């Protein structure tokens, strides 16, 4: 297709220097900062900038992230839900779809258990979807997101499900190969 067919998130992912290591390190900083200065859920722009500095995030990435911070700041109060926001940075990080999705799930999984329930995985997809929408890209409607997660939970190998949670690292391929995601990714021609 023409270059105009490219999804904005796909284009940005070739520009953004930060990968999984930087995002994981920023999450650690933001979690600490949020516990100290906020309610453990929110992060201010100032404390986000401090996390970027500590991790030495590339200057051009910081500009992009700053714009996304503004978009995620629904009330305009200079604060965002930090888990929602850091996960929202994964669609534009460098890497394949699989790497981005795995990183998004790992960022959301604060305890590092490797296991997640349906609600949490839906939240991860919502944050990623949110970023795509803000970039003017096509998005999945919430019904599609719910259906995606629910059908993967039903179809996945029983050995990967423990007490309503799945071992998400082994489920990445199931998500990618799901018709809903396949048709979504096919738009990036």
From TrEMBL:
Keywords: Lipoprotein, Metal-binding, Myristate, Repeat. Residues 60-95 form the EF-hand domain. InterPro entries: EF-hand-dom_pair, EF_hand_dom, Recoverin. One of its GO terms (molecular function) is calcium ion binding. Signal peptide: none annotated. PANTHER family: CALCIUM BINDING PROTEINS, NEUROCALCIN HOMOLOG. Belongs to the recoverin family. This is EF-hand domain-containing protein.
């Amino acid at each position: 297709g023409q270059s105009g067919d490219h999804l904005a998130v796909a284009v940005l992912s070739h520009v953004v220097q930060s990968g999984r290591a930087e995002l994981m390190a920023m999450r650690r900083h933001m979690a600490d900062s949020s516990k100290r200065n906020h309610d453990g859920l929110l992060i201010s722009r100032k404390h986000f900038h401090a996390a970027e500095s500590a991790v030495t995030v590339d200057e051009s990435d910081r500009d992009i992230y700053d714009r996304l911070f503004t978009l995620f700041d629904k009330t305009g109060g200079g604060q965002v839900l930090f888990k929602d926001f850091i996960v929202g940075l994964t669609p534009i990080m460098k890497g394949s779809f699989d790497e981005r999705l795995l990183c998004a799930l790992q960022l959301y999984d604060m305890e590092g258990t490797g296991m997640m329930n349906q609600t949490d995985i839906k939240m991860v997809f919502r944050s990623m979807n949110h970023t795509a929408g803000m970039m003017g890209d096509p998005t999945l409607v919430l019904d599609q997101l719910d259906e995606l997660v629910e059908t993967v939970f039903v179809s996945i190998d029983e050995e990967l499900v423990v007490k309503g949670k799945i071992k998400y690292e082994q489920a990445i391929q199931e998500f990618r190969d799901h018709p809903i995601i396949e048709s979504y990714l096919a738009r990036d021609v």
